[in-house]
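Entry for geranylgeranyl diphosphate complex. Fields follow.
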Amino acid sequence: MLDTGGAADLLARARTLTDARLAACAGRISRETPGHLGEALAYALGTTGKRVRPALVLGSYHAAGGTSDAIAGVAAAVEVVHTYSLVHDDLPCMDNDDQRRGRPTTHVAFDVATATRAGWLLVPVAVELLVEAAKELSLESARLLQMSRTLLDAGGFRGMVGGQWLDLAAEGRDLDAGQLATIHRGKTGALIRACCELGGIAAGAGPGQMAALTAFGHDVGLAFQVADDVLDATGSSEALGKTAGRDALLAKSTYVSVLGVEEARAEAGRLVEQAVARLQHTGLAAEPLSDLAGFIITRTS
Ligand code: GRG
């Protein structure tokens, strides 16, 4: 039985710290960016997700001995990249969805051109948040460079964008589990892995601990998507805050279509077990992070 007790505290702390940064950021942007575009940026940043990625950043940072609340700026930077990806993912040229986080998607609330521009504008906002956080954490420039590379690489063609590209190209095709893993390790997993790495880098983790955090993030990132596929097939739109059953509608191969619900759940469990084992005997204070991995595959939204 997975213990997810410590996850609630970590998620609550991540929400409090990160949301304060995101609210300040949204306020500044809507003052600086005129008209519809500023409003759309503030709208996208004002939606409340689960904050799993910020919690992974905080959990990894604390696990590696970091103590400053300024890590919230790094967590906010990742959340902003994630937010941009959701805004663009929902566009008519991608998954074409009208509900996200319990509200109309950004292109429905505004229009496609505004949502597209708002998504693009969030990328430099994320970099700015990262740079500010590095300054607050008094990190030397080599570590800021390493963190920038980690975040941008995960968000780029070797990660999220490349995975999304493959995912779109695969619509209507039957994939096997190996092909699905390649797509989702990029589309969803890369940013999740980067969260764990960013926390470790910010805390000054050594090579052994960094390798453990990377391996943990690699497995949890894929487990997250397997759980997402199960929720899409079994959850309600009300609970998910987005349209349920979208994968079947778009004729997407998913872990559920390939493995079935029960085997997909079992696969998510195996991945998390493996992820948690990666953190053992590393000197990392890994309990909250391990609990968070359990939450990621037992969540209901
Ligand atoms: C140019 C091809 C190209 C792509 C642009 C849109 C995009 C980049 C990538 C899509 C990435 C994406 C949306 C992956 C899905 C990840 C996922 C399962 C998101 C849901 O995450 P949750 O459940 O959401 O954490 P909340 O709302 O809780 O934050």
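NOTE: DSSP finds 15 helices and two strands in the chain.
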